[in-house]
């Protein structure tokens, strides 16, 4: 089975279709959003109610508080209401300012404004995300 390097977990992983999207988006976070690698974590586990979940990626602020949660899907999975609702459920625990969902073909970024997530009209840099806290 093909392997792919994860710079966040510092190891080779099985290159499943979803893992390929996750690793591509880690690179986007670093190069486009300008997120320092040490401010990201992959496969973040947490409990919601009495059920265990894992966020694909979490971006942290400088005080180690969750700032953005990223839900990655393989490229053939449409980004629909169900996927967005999944990311919003994660936010009930993580309390982030940004939700990002991607399948590698389409990426949607939402920002918390007045208690609701609304589509972001541009790609915010890490510094911009920090300033909007």
Q: Can you characterise this structure?
A:
The protein has 133 residues and is of the alpha+beta class. The chain has 3 helices and 8 strands; from the N terminus they run ββαβββαβββα. The chain has helices at residues 17-31, 81-94, 126-131, and strands spanning 3-6, 11-14, 40-48, 51-60, 66-72, 98-102, 107-113, 116-119. It is globular, with a radius of gyration of 14 Å. It starts with a strand and ends with a helix.
**Topology, number of strands:** 8
Question: What is the overall silhouette?
Answer: globular
Sheet with the most strands: spatial strand order: 3-4-5-6-7-8
| Percent of residues in beta strands | 35-45%
Label this structure with key terms.
26% helix, 133 residues, 6-stranded mixed β-sheet, globular, single chain, alpha+beta
């Amino acid at each position: 089975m093909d392997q792919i390097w994860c710079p966040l977990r510092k190891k080779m992983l099985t290159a499943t279709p979803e893992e390929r999207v996750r690793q591509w988006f880690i690179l986007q976070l670093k190069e486009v959003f300008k997120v320092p690698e040490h401010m990201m974590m992959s496969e973040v586990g947490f409990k919601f109610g009495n059920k265990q979940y894992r966020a694909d990626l979490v971006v942290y602020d400088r005080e180690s508080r969750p700032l953005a949660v990223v839900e990655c899907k393989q490229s053939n999975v449409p980004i629909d209401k169900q996927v967005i609702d999944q990311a919003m459920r994660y936010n009930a625990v993580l309390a982030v300012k940004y939700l990002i969902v991607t399948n590698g073909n389409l990426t949607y970024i939402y920002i918390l404004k007045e208690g609701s997530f609304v589509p972001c009209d541009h790609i915010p840099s890490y510094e911009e995300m920090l300033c909007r806290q």
